[in-house]
Amino acid sequence: MQTPTIKKRTKLSSVWIIPLFAMLVSIWFVTQHYLNRGTEIEIRFQSAEGIEAGKTLIKTLNVEVGVVTKVEINEDLLTVRVLARIKPEATNLLRQDSQFWVVKPRIGSKGVSGLTTLLSGAYIELEPGNDYPGKTSFVGLENPPLNRTNKDGLNIYLVSDASNSLNAGDPVLFKGFEVGQVTQIEILNSKKLKTNIFIESPYDRMVTSNSRFYNTSGVSFRLNAQGIDVFSDSIESTLTGGISFDLPATLSPGKAVTDGTEFKLYENKMAIEAHPYQYSVDYLLLFERSIRGLNIGEYVEYRGVRVGTVVDISFDYLPENQFDSANAPKVPVLIRLDPGRILGEDSPAAVEKLTKILNRHVKNGLRAALKTGSLVTGQSYIQLDFYPDQSKSIFNVGLYSSIPTTHDDLDSMLSDIGVFADSLAKLPLTQTASQVNNMLASAEQTMQEATQLIQSLNQFAAQGKQLIEQPSAQELPQKLNTLITELEKTLQLFSNEKGLASSLDITLHEVQSTLRSIQKVADTIESKPDSLLFSSPRQADIVPGKDK
Amino acid sequence: MNFIKITLIAIVSSFLFACSSQPEPSTQYYLFPYPENKALQQRVEIALNLELAPYLKTDSIALLKEGNLLQFAHYHRWAQPLQVSINESLVDKLSNQLPGKVVDDINQLGGLQLQIVRFHGNLQGEVMLIGAWSIAQQKPEKFILRMQQSAEGYDDLVSTMDLLLDKLVQQIVKQLI
Asked: Is this complex's ipTM strictly greater than 0.90?
């Protein structure tokens, strides 16, 4: 009997390789799935309008980078939480400053956008920022951001007194071309507004330290001593609002500016031309006469050259109680002198320099006077000039220094008389006197010639007398009389009613009658050409008194 | 057969008769009756400046048919221009009826100015004469005269028109004497 040899087989059966392999493959699949699932992110929105779990895509530059997996309401019951998975290869886009917003059809003053989503459905746009990656929780934007982080350009702040109907998204224009837009408007306090604008590259190079920004909404008019000015920009900005920047006519481009530079936003283009300089000195002028015809914005001139502007006219500038207490209160006019215009230098140092120079000149007789610029419109302006007979110096009124004023009406009259006297003195009197002498000499000669002429006329008259006394000349009147009588007889023949005139009249009448008959014949032939050959039966005339 | 012949002859003859035309009435010419002057040699002739409406300057006699419709007769015409006829008739009548001194005075003032604006008859037998007369620069005296024809026809119309001229002369004489 054979005893079976039992061998213990310690090795596993090779059959197990198959399930093992299957398990490994499964593990590899699962791992692969998890690895490919991507990063889960959370975005908060005000509402989930147009977003659907499993359908709404997340796109960057129109490339699909993820999909929404879940939409739920937050615990605060005011916002929604959108959970989405971003593809592994796109996780790099999830940066600290990445932005999300829903792209859907929008209609606004800037036009229509997102029309393609009408058919495809809304999607979430992911705009990667520039910061480091690794963020998974975001707050979504309600509207597309105005300044794209992937665009080069310049962010600038403008400070203004009033908003002047500006809105985020309004265009920023340079020479009429849109170069950027308003990104945000903040209220700093009850009087100041801060407007953020973004200027796209390469136009950001146009902005320099001397650039002036102004509001281009609407159309503005101004009537001044120089006439009427009308300002308006492009139709779009006139209707919807906008900001323009430009260099004032008197300034050259300044230094380049950096991101975040603050500028003043002027009310309109006239305002930047009126005060194109950053630094200026304000003086208060006190007038003793009526300043009717002087407007804010009017020019201040020194002997015809513009040196500044009238900034304000108000009794507020007088120290307290000055209006009540003074005997005849003066009218305060605030003027702004620009060192840039006078000294060609726009800096704080130039301001000090101008103050010193004006102090010196006022001591030497520099005065401010009100002058009429246009007799038609009655507009006035302020003229600075020297009046040497007065000696005063700059004094302070309230917060401002004051340049002494003077009456100019008499003065202008005196200067006119002076000019007249000058031109009188320039008259060539000596030359005129010699010319008069010459004239007198020639007049004497003419007189002599006239005497000769009279003598020859006398001779002529004597000869005429002889001629008349001749018998043939004596007969002349009688012959003329005969001729006239003959003529009268002939004329009578014509005027006699039964004579030539009468028969002429009858002939004329007959000619007229014949012409009328010819016209009748012509009319008949025209209406009935065959009437020449075939006479049409004519009805008998109606009989007078037939119906009696 | 006999009936057909008669019918054919009747049709052919009716065609032939249709082609024949009626004899046209001849044109009649009219003139105002010549005044019978008793003392033609002694009288002074008045100077008359007559102005006729343009429609009266045609040869045909004008007749108001109905409303504003005026018809000029084709077969009844004036023998001479109405201007001449009226002038002749009025000068005779006025010179006869006005004293010689008055005529002299009128002639020295430039004669009598007479304007006739309407002078025609109508189907009802009424003849009208409308116009104005004046001496020198005085205010014109207007006149509107009407008269009924005694019988129908153009001959009686011309007689009635002459009677109307008589009536006008009487009116003028009455005003001047």
From this structure: no
